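Following up on my earlier message about adenosine-5'-diphosphate. Here are the inputs again, as you asked, copied directly from the submission form:
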Amino acid sequence: MKLAIYPGTFDPITNGHLYIIERSLAIFDNVTVAVAKSPKKQPLFSVERRVEFIRQAFADDPRVQVESFDSLLVEYARARGASVVLRGLRAVSDFEYELQMALMNKKLENSIETVFMMPSLRYIFLSSTIVKEAATFGGDVSGLVPDHVRVALAEIFGPPHGTNSDSARGE
Ligand code: ADP
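Thanks, got it. Here's what our run produced:
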């Protein structure tokens, strides 16, 4: 049984994250999505809600577990019996930070491997931050996040201010 841990803040989960999880299931038997509490990032959603959003997205798939964690990632992975940490690498801008993290994790626990997966071209620009930014100003985020997340954002920021022609065409 090959288990991977996919750690992140997921504030909130986007379709870019979902794509990585779905693709990783072709390589790993099980994926545990580990939602970091990340208080320093002052998340918009509580860790419980962030976990719930992901659980809802994978409700029918027993290969995906979702948990929160608040400890050293390598210790958490070891306790879960996972030897792989999964990360998505969107652009050059992600690279330096991701390399630094992967090398630090390797130093802390040599037996853990970080595996980077390519994003979908469709979601390469997508981040939780940009989704929140758009929703704050009434932008339509449908097609970028699961529908229940879109609804949760609209409850906080109000409904989007109209639909542009690209999103209406599903682009
Ligand atoms: P963190 O706070 O740890 O960066 P995030 O929730 O922002 O957590 O991201 C978790 C992981 O998902 C990171 O490896 C990030 O690069 C990756 N990721 C984020 N958005 C996308 C996307 N649109 N496509 C692919 N991977 C992504």
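One observation from looking it over: The mean pLDDT is 93. Hope that helps, and feel free to reply on this thread.
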